[in-house]
């Protein structure tokens, strides 16, 4: 089976937010105004956090895109009273929208705060991406007001591309399947793929010495990992040499 995962290189991310916009376009997520955001009703499925790193007199701003981590040991799954969030065979933390009764317990128990409650009347039907095989797939279509939703790792693309490969009787090539955020990132900071493939880029990067999982000490085993930002000293602040 596939084991989908993602690695985001924080040295490459420039915080442009293109990934956020691409996700909104791909997944038909409304752009909500500041008033709604101030009431805790933001809808984006990926956000770009920022923090400072390095010495106090020469800090560097680091951007950290945060998606659903598709945790292997997902804390959102066991608090749902109706089993509306569950793992798929290929390791996705999936919402079963038509089961959700809107308790939001999963959101409370998510350490990354990436789940979004649909306060607005809109559905997740994909306007721009053809989905003949997945048109009636509840993983894709049944988002609605009063139902929890979140990053799906672009499940519609996963289903479409894996089905295409199956119909053509060939294995899916590494890199053939890209999430919308990955496809749009101008610095190629996001790499998505199959962790079960020995030769996949995502597997190689997830085993890189700089690779780490956010809040890894919680033992939730996130499938989205990061390459730690490599900080470069600012030459303008290098200590001046001895005067001649
Ligand atoms: Fe960072 Fe790429 Fe997202 Fe821009 S599109 S914020 S560079 S991950």
Could you explain how this protein is built, in words?
The protein is of the alpha+beta class and 244 residues long. The protein has a single domain, classed as Alpha-Beta Plaits, CATH 3.30.70.20. The protein has helices at 18-27, 34-38, 105-108, 138-141, 155-167, 180-184, 201-206; strands at residues 4-9, 47-53, 60-66, 85-87, 93-95, 116-117, 148-149, 190-194, 211-212, 224-227. Strands 8-1-10-9 form a four-stranded mixed sheet. A two-stranded antiparallel sheet has the order 2-3. Strands 4-5 form a two-stranded antiparallel ribbon. It is globular and about 55 Å long. Bound molecules: iron/sulfur cluster. Iron/sulfur cluster (SF4) binds at residues 13-19, 48, 63, 65, 184-185, 187, 189-190.
Percentage beta strand: 15-25%
Number of discrete helical segments:
7
Q: Helix/strand-derived class?
A: alpha+beta
Please identify the oligomeric state: single chain
Biggest sheet architecture: 4 strands, mixed
Instruction: Return the domain count.
Output: 1
Q: Indicate the percent of residues in helices.
A: 10-25%
Morphology call: globular
Distance, first to last CA: 68 Å
Radius of gyration: 19 Å
CATH topology: Alpha-Beta Plaits
Strand order of the largest sheet: 8-1-10-9
- Chemical compounds bound to the protein: iron/sulfur cluster
What is the annotated CATH architecture?
A: 2-Layer Sandwich
Number of strands: 10
Helix/strand order: EHHEEEEHEHEHHEHEE
Mean pLDDT: 86
Q: Outline the low-pLDDT stretches.
A: 126-136
Kindly provide the name of the CATH class. Answer: Alpha Beta
């Amino acid at each position: 089976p596939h084991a989908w995962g993602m690695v985001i290189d924080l040295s490459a991310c420039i915080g442009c937010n293109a990934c956020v916009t691409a996700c909104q376009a791909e997944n038909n997520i409304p752009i909500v105004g500041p008033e709604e955001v101030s009431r805790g009703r933001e809808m984006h499925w990926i956000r770009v956090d920022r923090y400072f790193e390095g010495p106090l007199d020469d800090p560097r701003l680091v951007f950290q895109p945060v998606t659903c981590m598709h945790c292997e040991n997902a804390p959102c799954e066991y608090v749902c009273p109706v089993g509306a969030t569950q793992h798929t065979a290929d390791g996705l933390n999936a919402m079963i929208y038509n089961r959700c009764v809107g308790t939001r317990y999963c959101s409370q128990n998510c350490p990354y705060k990436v789940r979004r409650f649909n306060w607005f009347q809109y559905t997740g039907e994909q306007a721009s991406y053809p989905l003949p095989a997945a048109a009636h797939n509840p993983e894709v279509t049944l988002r609605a007001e009063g139902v929890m939703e979140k990053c799906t790792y672009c499940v519609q693309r996963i289903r479409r591309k894996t089905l295409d490969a199956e119909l053509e009787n060939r294995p899916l090539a590494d890199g053939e399947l890209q999430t919308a955020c990955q496809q749009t990132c101008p610095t190629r900071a996001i790499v998505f793929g199959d962790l079960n493939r020995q030769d996949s880029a995502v597997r190689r990067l997830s085993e890189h010495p700089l690779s780490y999982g956010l809040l890894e000490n919680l033992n939730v085993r996130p499938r989205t990992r990061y390459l730690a930002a490599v900080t470069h000293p600012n030459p303008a602040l290098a200590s001046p040499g001895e005067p001649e």
